[in-house]
Amino acid sequence: MTALSACTASSHGPGVPPEGARRSSIGRTSSRLQAQKGSVVLVDNRILARECLRSSLAAHPAPWDVVACSTIEEWQNEADRHPPLAAVLLHVGSANITDSHMEELIRQIIRISASAPLIILADRDDVVQIVNALDYGVRGYIPSSVSVEVCVEAINLALAGGVFVPASTVFAMREVINSDPTHDQRLTEMFTPRQIQVAEAIWQGKPNKIIAYELNMCESTVKVHIRNIMQKLKATNRTEAAYKVSALFTNSSVDLL
For residues 198 and 213, what is the distance between their CA atoms, to the nearest angstrom? Predict the structure, then answer.
């Protein structure tokens, strides 16, 4: 029996979908990738979640094998036992990828995987998180709310040279683009010093409890600041506010507090 700490692999069948099954334009890339059969390495330190996802991915026809590991180092130690690396699927759960340790992990995997694309699987699908992931160099961002079929097709898209992001992100960015521009206003004209601190925390994806702790204020006060910030930005939700704040900080020379 394979040890729990070792990578586990699943091989797909011949890649022929069940009769009558719907195949999207992305799914049709599988025939072109058949000659490039390799390993899609699923990295997740949660054993049950990792094995369930591995089994689900393996049940869908695809031109690659699924190898599930707890860490990227585990894959390196056992790489010679599997087909060559084709892509890495990193499950980050609800983690904030702007946290220093998570950013370093992503950059480490990109260095190790070389030309093989890194795809993020996450519970969060806010715009700022996704934009940051793309800035790091990932080739896909898959929210855990999608189906396994979409996940398979997103992997195939990355293997074909494309980049997958959820449609909700595109719609959110469109709303920001179509909204009244505010980034040409100086931060100090729009916000108080305290609001600038809270706005920066929103940009970094921090939850209210963390913001309250770091700024030494009550959580209810944080909520008031966020509501006022959203009103000034004319943002309808926190995701839109974070994206607009990102544009403000990028185009401002104000020293963050």
Answer: 12
Is the separation of the CB atoms in 87 and 57 below 8 Å? no
- Same domain for 187 and 163, yes or no, is no
Answer whether 0.70 is exceeded by the pTM.
Answer: no
Of 192, 173, 178, 174, which is closest to residue 246 (Cα–Cα)?
A: 173
146 and 22 in a single domain? The answer is yes
**CATH number of the structural domain spanning residue 110:** 3.40.50.2300
Closest CA to 21 of 152, 160, 164: 152
Which three-class secondary structure state does DSSP give residue 9?
strand
CB-based contacts of 255: which residues, under 8 Å, 6+ apart? none
Residue type, 115: S
The DSSP element (H or E) to which 69 belongs, if any, is strand 64-69
Q: What are phi and psi of 87, to 5 degrees?
A: -165, 160
Q: Which residues pair with 121 in a beta bridge?
A: 91, 142
86 & 213 share domain:
no
Domain residues for the domain of 209 are 179-250
Please write the tens of the pLDDT for every residue from 187-236. Answer: 677 888 898 899 888 888 888 999 999 999 999 999 999 999 988 888 88
